[in-house]
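I would love for you to help me understand the pair of lines that follows before we discuss the fold together.
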Amino acid sequence: ANPKPLRTGGTGLTGEYVAVVALAAHEQDHVLIDVYADFTCPACQRLESEGLEKVRLRYGDRVAIRNHYIAGPATAPSAKILYDVAVAQGKGEPVARALFHARLKHGDDGANLPLVAAIAHRFGLSQPFRIALEDGSGRRKIASEWNALGGKVAFFPFIVIGDEIAVGGDQDNLMMVLDSVLAKEE
């Protein structure tokens, strides 16, 4: 189930959200959305496969979405390790889509590793992926990222709108909050 943040601040906004900073009424033409997601999180997988495309279609260029793929402490790390290898080879986004599409299991790298290795092979990344797994560099990078971001990311998916509002992965609620943020007085 998606964790539902409680409304904690803001004026003129509808939906459920957590204020990251003090909010004021919004009347913006466009907004930046930062999505923090884990490849093995079922709610993140649903958001990636269904929700973000609906957001793009509904709001068009009124929203800009930046994806941040991270691995929480209880996750299975192989997917994030492959993603980092793919980014270094200029293949990050197509590999991210393949990883989400694979519907990996949360916390079960034994089940995930053959699927992740097959994706690595499909994108010509088998050797650098294997090296990153074996030399520990992939796990060290994941730990470093979590140490830097773990205090900010309260749940997955963690969506920050305009550096001020955090919402969960429920697409209807996300769009309700976006409608409020993007409201224009006629």
